[in-house]
Every structure is written in structure tokens, then in C-alpha cells.
Amino acid sequence: MKEFGISIRGRVKNFTLPKSQPLIPLFEAVVNSLNAIDERKEKEPDFDNGYISIVLKRSQQLSFNGEIDPLAEVIDITVEDNGIGFNESNFTSFLQSDSTYKEAIGGKGVGRFSWLVAFQRAIIESTYKDDESGFVTRSFEFNLDKNEINDTLVNSTRDSNITSVKLQGFMSPYRESMPKQLSTIAMRVVHHCLIYFMSDNCPKIIISDGLDSINLNQLFAEKIKSDGNVDSFIIGDNQFELLHVKAEDPSLNGNRLFLCAHSRLVERKDLDKYITDLDRSIYDKHAFWYVGVLKGPYLDENVDMNRLSFNIPDGGIGKTLTGVLSMDQIMHEAVQRIKTYLHEYLTPISDAKMRSITNYVTRKAPQFRHLLKQMPTEVAMIKPNLSEDKLSDELYKIKRQFDKCMQDENSELLETLKEGIISDSEYQRRFQIQVTKLSEANEAILAEYVAHRKVVIDLLQAALNRKDDGKYNKEQYIHDLIYPMRTTADAEPYDRHNLWLLDEKLAYCSYISSDIPFDNSPKENRTDIMILDCPVAVSEDENDGTEYDTIVLFELKRPMRDDYTDGENPIVQLYRYVDKLKTNRETDKNGRIIHVGMNTKFYLYAVCDITPKLESAINHGGIFKKTPDKTGYYGYNDGYNAYIEILPFNKIINDSQKRNRVLFEKLGL
């Protein structure tokens, strides 16, 4: 009877095993078997038929046809090998926590404790050849019940080495997190032991579950191809080796870098976070995922006790003051070499991405076009295959960065000029650079405005079509396009309106509508919202208390409306509103009187389709003439000092398209 010098229960409790890594106990058992086979090879040079058998026992859950469900939960795992066995040296090491017996090959002496984190017990039986007694069999159970290991050692009737580790009683939450498909578990073992499988001396490894079996060596050969390309590089005094692998395994579902220590996988890095243009396009087009395998003495020396991470600082692009190499620099060097290796695959992805971005900013988002020249590095860092919404978000972030840099550079240039620490020639050079950037930025702003106009015209045109239910859009939809409604008086500037659709000179009008067209009732839970079918007043100037020279009114009606009367139609409504303004009692949104004098000129616009009843009212007016294109009407009412136009929606769209056509064509819109 032999006893641990520590509390097994305490040691297991302190062993960190995330529930997302339920395969770690299996990996530990498999790697122990690989080490045991290597140790036997060293002792027996002629030994070359090593094997490892992994057997999964599933619950007795039945499938629909009454057979054992191939996706039933795994409850026990047995790993068997023909390695050196639990001889006295290995058994003594097993009994010692944090043993240094396998230190030379990366053993931390703690991996077996993961067995008792996820399983109730481990039952070990090992037959090996003793130098004095011949073949013997050692058996014992490893559990949390006691610190004692009651092993038995008896002479064996067998004449060959065989060791089995039975992990029994898979516990929650690891049991639920365990992959169900045998093929998935098989590939995970291959990934974990990737370096072993790449060796010509890798033992034969079979995994089975009583229903099916998979040869892992064959799986590696079929699914993972290595063209033997190894990159060796040095960072400081540290040597690294990067093996490039093309893996045809769809379950990888990503391009990854495996960081290994002592030939064992420790960390996985998702490379799409490090290489912009590396995404699933490579797998879709070429049927492989990229896997890099990175190893080196520095990684071996700095792996943590549980072999789940490295004790290497993240930050810094080079050595710190204390001479410690950072993970960032290791990743930087590895990533550069991966980019070179995948150059022929990444270049077409990058080129296609840039064509897509260029096409988008040219045809749909010209406000970002200057970024292609001014921020090429940042634009190149945009991920490929983004939706237009996400692409717009990324470009907007870069634009904000550009604007901030412009402000900082302008301030710095002015400051250096004030302090006299810059020569005239250098100032002129830098000034010209800033002017060029500013010009391109302003061109982008203009392009954005022109693109906005194109969208507004398209939306207005679509709004005029009859809907599927046979009805037309209500006034509100069109109203928002021409004259945006606001939630509060100060929510957004009124110069965001689209009155240019009616007349270009209205683009500069200020909003002075009185309280009459608004509903300020608190029951509506909103203020200063335009009421439909009421005239709206705008002016070229803000209300400063003086008499207005010009006031523009417009009235908007639902498309194809035809329920007008002689006393209630848009022409009468506009005149009525002029009458109210002439009383000099109406106020603007700020409560200020709108002053109207004898010389105040009124421009009145009725925005509506000319239906039969409205045309009758127009003809009775006596002042209207058809516009030159015969689609609308205009007239002058001397008594009101008012010019009035009847603008059908089709005329508004056609005229707007003609006025803006040259701009649209210049932008490729």
C-alpha cells in the first residue's frame, strides 16, 4: 500500500478544467499512451508496431429502430496501448503530484487529475515485462475516496505489453458538453495530437464506440494534408517552427493557429481575427481550412501547469524591459509568415473585396470615396463579404477617424506656425497636403448630398404607385419625404427638409410656420408635429422681428385624391392661410409674431395630382395657365401679391430628375 503525500481531493478541486473542454481527460490518456510507446521504443529499438485503442461506451439510449443510438451520451472511455506500461518508475511518478519524471518531454505531473475532475474513477490495468520477474500485471483504482492506492502486482500469463486506462462515470457538466458524433471526437483527437500524427513513427490509433470505428491515422491522411512546408524563424534568441497544414476537415469551421508545447496542443487562435482577408472563402473555393502548428522551446518553457494556456504576457510588439517576449510579437511574426504562405489564396479575396468596396462607394455611397485614397490601409482592413449595411458602418468609422485626424493635423500645423518652428517651405508643403485632404473630404460631402437626392427622388416615385390593396400611400409617407416631421422643435435642424423637390430656391428656406398647422396637444405625447392637409410656411430668413420680404407656403395632398369642393381645396386653403398671416397675429414655432407687410411676396405651392374635381376648381380660378410641359398650372394673384403653382407629383419627379441628372451621371448614380 502506497500513499499520496497530498490531498487528492484538494488537488483535483484546484485543477482548472472548463466545462467547454470535456475531452481534456481523453487527450491526457492518449498522450500518456503515446509517451509510453515512445519510452518502449527507446528501450526496445526493434519495437515498431505501437498501437492505441480508444473505446467509448455510450448510454443504453435506444434510437427509433430499437438499436443503441449512435448519438447517445458517452458515459465511459477506455484507452489501451502497448507501451512501456506502469513499471516501478512510471508507477512511482504516478503517485507523486507534480512529478518531474516526464519533465524532459513536457510532462507536468498533473494531467491525470483531470480524470477525476470529469469522471468518478479511473481503473488502470497494466501488463509489462519486468527485468527480473518476466511479465507482470499491475492493477489499481484512482478515485477521490482516499489518498491510498491499493495496487496489486501479480505474474501474468500474457507475454506482451498492454495497458488500459478506464475512465468511468462521466460527470456533469462535462458529459453534456461532450461531442456526440464519433467522427467529431476522432478529429478532435487528431487536432490535439497533430504533431504526433505528422511523424513517420506515429503508432496506429483506432477509436470505436461499439457501433463504428475510425482509424485516426487514415483520417489524418485523408482530411489533413501537410505539404511539408515548415517555416523556421527567430525572435530575439528564441527559435520557432511553424508548420503549414491544409485541412480538409469541415468540422474545423475556421482557419486556426495551434500553439503547441512539447508536441501537444495548448491554445487555438482564430486567424480571422489576425488576418483580415482570411475567411471561409478559402474553404468554399479550395476545400480546405488553413491550420498552422507553432512550436518552439520558448512555448515549451512557458506553458502553464495544466497545459491549457501559456504564461506569456500579451502586450507589446517586442521584448519588454525585462527581456520577456510577448505573445503579441510571437503572433505578429507567425501571422506574417502565414500571409506569405497563403498569398495566392488571399490575394484574389482581397482584390474582390476592394472591387466590391470601390463599386459601393462609387455607386451608392460616394461620401466615402475619398477614403480609398486618404485611408487605404484602414479600408484594406475591412473584412470581406460584408453586407452593405455593415460595410457602411465600417466606412463610417474610418470616416470619423479621418475627420479626427484632419482636425488634429490642422491644429498641429497652426500651432507650429504660431511658434515659428517650421520653415515657410515646409509649411507650404504640409498646407497643400491638408488642402488636398480637405478638398476631397468636401467633395465627399457634396457627393453624399447628391446621392441623398437620388434616393429621395426614387422613394417619392415609389410612393406614388398604387399599393397591393388598391389604395395609395397616405399623405404622411410623402409628407416625410418632402417635409420631414420632427418629434420636438430642437430635435434636428429644419434645413434637413427636401423642399428642393418643389423648387431649388426652397433649399435655403427657414421654417417659420405658425402654431395653426401644429398639434401641440399633450394627448398626442409629442410637440411641433405637422398636421396633414394644413399649409406650411417657410421663408428665406429667420424671424428677427422685422417684416418678411418673402414667405413660401405649400399644401400637400394624398396621391390621386378627388373629393375637393369649391370651398375646400388646396388653392382655397393656401389663400386662407395668407389671410391669416396678413393679420400679423400668427406666431412662429418660437412664439414670435410673423410680420407681414404690403410688399411681402407669397409663393404658394399645391402639391397634388390634378384630378377632375381639382381641375374644375383650377379652371374656375381664372388666373391659371398650363406650364410649358402641359403637366401643371401656374398663375399670379395680384390681390394677394402671390405667385401660385399647382404641382402634380409626376411633374415634381420629372423636373427633379432633369435638374439633377448631370450630377447623378457624374457620380455614376
Describe the structure.
It is a single chain. This protein has 669 residues and is of the alpha+beta class. It is 37% helix and 22% strand. The chain has an eight-stranded mixed beta sheet. The longest helix has 40 residues, at 424-463. It is elongated. Residues 98-109, 486-494 and 514-534 have low confidence and may be disordered.
From the N-terminal CA to the C-terminal CA, the straight-line distance is: 87 Å
| Poorly predicted regions | 98-109, 486-494, 514-534
Number of strands: 22
C-alpha geometry = elongated
User: What percentage of the residues does DSSP assign to strands (E)?
Assistant: 15-25%
Radius of gyration: 40 Å
Strand order of the largest sheet: 7-5-4-8-3-2-9-10
Tally the helices. 20
Class by helix and strand content?
alpha+beta
Whole-number average pLDDT?
A: 80
What share of the residues lie within helices?
25-40%
Biggest pleated sheet: 8 strands, mixed
